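Researcher: Please predict.
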Amino acid sequence: MVFLKAFLIGGLICAAVQILMEKTKLMPGRIMVLLVCGGVLLGALGIYEPFAEFAGAGATVPLLGFGNTLWKGVKEAVDVSGFLGTFKGGFTAGSVGISAALVFGYLASLVFEPRMKKK
């Protein structure tokens, strides 16, 4: 049942993004930013945690989860460091995921020999 909920919620998020891509003039990068900002907003309003508990991996894997991670990092850093935490909290909280993306992206480029697309 847990797998089904995660699959369903993740699928609904993907469907909403697909609808945005097809029915609006928003580019994929802007939609990704909207998802991250949505995760921040849901976290700030206290809605994200119950949503993630219900949905499981369907809510935590997409960019909404990254936005919530940034929110939690900034909130904790502001509690400890005050205003300075506004600038360093998101970097601290997201550093592991960003570092992993860079390392694995580099390793994939070594294995798969990337090429530039020809126009």
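Model: The chain has a mean pLDDT of 87.
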